[in-house]
Structures are given as C-alpha cells and as structure tokens.
Prior knowledge:
Elements: H1 3-24, H2 26-40, H3 44-56, H4 63-74, H5 77-106, E1 113-117, H6 128-141, E2 145-151, H7 154-166, E3 171-176, H8 183-190, E4 195-200, H9 206-217, E5 222-228, H10 233-237, H11 240-247, E6 252-257, H12 263-276, E7 285-288, H13 289-300, E8 307-310, E9 314-317, E10 325-328, H14 334-345
Parallel strand pairs: 1-2, 1-8, 2-3, 3-4, 4-5, 5-6, 6-7
Antiparallel strand pairs: 8-9, 9-10
Amino acid sequence: MDNYELTYAVIKTAVENGIRYIQDNPKRGVRNLLDLGEYFARGRFQKDFFELAHGILKNEDSYYYDIIESLIKNTKHKSIADFGINIGFNSMTYGANIIRENEKKFGYNIPWVIVFDFEKSNDDHISVHEADRLIQEGKKTGIYSYMIMLGKNIEMFDEMYAAIEKNRDCAIVIFIDPCIIDEETAKKLSNLSNICINVIIEDDCTLAVEKTNILKKYKCFYGGYMYYNDNNASDIMNGVVSNKLLSASMNFAVLVKDQECSDETSIKVYEYIYNSRTRTNHPVCLMDFYGDIARIDSIISEESFFLSIDSSGQATASSLYGAKSYLNITESSLADVLKNIQIITH
C-alpha cells in the first residue's frame, strides 16, 4: 500500500467515525472532525480553512451547527464522507500537489476544477467515453474536482452518469433544473456518493420545493444555485435568496454571475458572500461560482485559471461566456488544450 492509499484509508475511517459521532453529539463531534482535518492539513488553503472554521464554531449558537446537524440527519453518511474526502483530500491536498509539480514541469497553468457547460443541447455532443477520457487525463494532471452545468439537458445527464460512476475518487458537482428530477432520477443520483446536486432557484420556488423533497426522500447530498445580475443581486444581499433556500430545505447554494451582470455588482455580491460565511448568524452557506473558483485556484497555483468544456467538446477560458475558443477535447488531449491556451493568452 503506497502513502496515498494509506493516508486515504486513515482519513476515510476517521471521517466515517466522526460523522457517526456528530449524529449523537453535534457540537463536540464537529470540533473533533475539525481537529482531525487540521492534523492532516498541509497546504495554506487547508490551514486557513480550519483556522477560520475553529474561530466561527467557538460560538455555541452558530448557525453552522444547525446546517451541519441538518446535513447529517438528511443525507447519506457515505455521500458526506466520500464527497468531503474527494474534495478535501483528493482535490485540495493530493491533487493540488500534483498540479503544482506539473505546472513547474510543463510551464502551463492547470485549473483545480474543470467545468462542463452542458446547459445548451448539441446534436453532436461528446460521448461518455470522451468525457471519461478527459477526467482520466485530468486526474493524472492533479484535477479531482469537476462541475457539470446541466440545466434541463436530460440527454447529457444520462450520458454523464456513467462517467461520474467511473470516477468515484473525484468530487463532482452537478447543476440541474428541477424539471428533470423524478423518482427514478433521484434514486439513480442517490447511488452516487461522490456528487453534490445543486438545483436552480428561481422567482417561483414551488417546483424546486416539490423536487427537492424527492431528493431528500432518497437522502441525496443537495443544495441550490441561481444566476444573478444587476436586477436580482439585491435579493442575495437582503436575505430573499436565503429564505427561498430554506423553503426548499437547502442549507447551501452556489451563486453564478450571468453574462449581463456588471463587474461592480459581481464584486459587491462576492464580498457579501465571502463576509456572510464568517458570520455565525447567517442561516445558509453561500458560495460564489467565479469568485470562489478563482480564490481556490490562486491559492493552489500562482495564477488563477478557469476552464470550461461545452457539450461539443470545445474548450474556453476565463468564463462560461468566453468569446475566445481553443482546441476541442474530442480532437486533442487535455495537455494540448492547456498548452494551446497558455500560448494564445501569454
């Protein structure tokens, strides 16, 4: 057994035991799990995270205890453990070290996460084999986190299911419209312990509430997401969005700046989201799609880098709305795509 396998086995056992302990004694259990995480933390990102978490949870009345207790009660423990280890250890520790080594070796930027932008359907879409090949190449490069923007694209959900199933050592976040959730879909999703399911939140949450109740029935690990712009950003900062999330039994959400959003608004929203996470009286945990991807990437690498792949396999950098396209992953390796982006942008 090599060092990675031994460390993974020790962490997995400890986390599983810790989750069981939280169920009986939430506050003490959470603090014990944080102590464990701090012990294994090696990089600056992990150490900063656990130091911040300890500071927040010193307050016995922190809403984070309610969030964690709800998560433990309503979610399969295997899903919490597997997804948490995949993102905390495989991606942020083990994978991050490989990324740094490869960036020095090859001289091009490597993202810590790849985004599959599949919301728009495409007749000539990539196959499960092509998606799996990209993920396999990604893991060799150090990338163990993937986000899949599906929306209403049920065809690509069916295609990607097999790829997710084949890569259970990766942390995979999917973004879906509630209209594609039914009993059969929820049951399939509940069999994948390496995913976090984010359901879109809109003005009318009736459908989202109905469908998240199905996810809850199967104890899926789920939260919400929404697109924001200059027109609806105030709903984030005045608590309207948090109330919608709570009505759909969601304890966390990812907020995505849309194409029409001004830079001024996106900065305000990111600052609000970042500050909300340090407050003990905020009832939900909010994340900023672009802001937090960039923040984590700038900690792992010297330079932050965003990479998305659309349903035809076309790679773009900078954002989901990037005007400039690069190589196609159906015709090129991930390494060639990253080299191509480096050459064109520098």
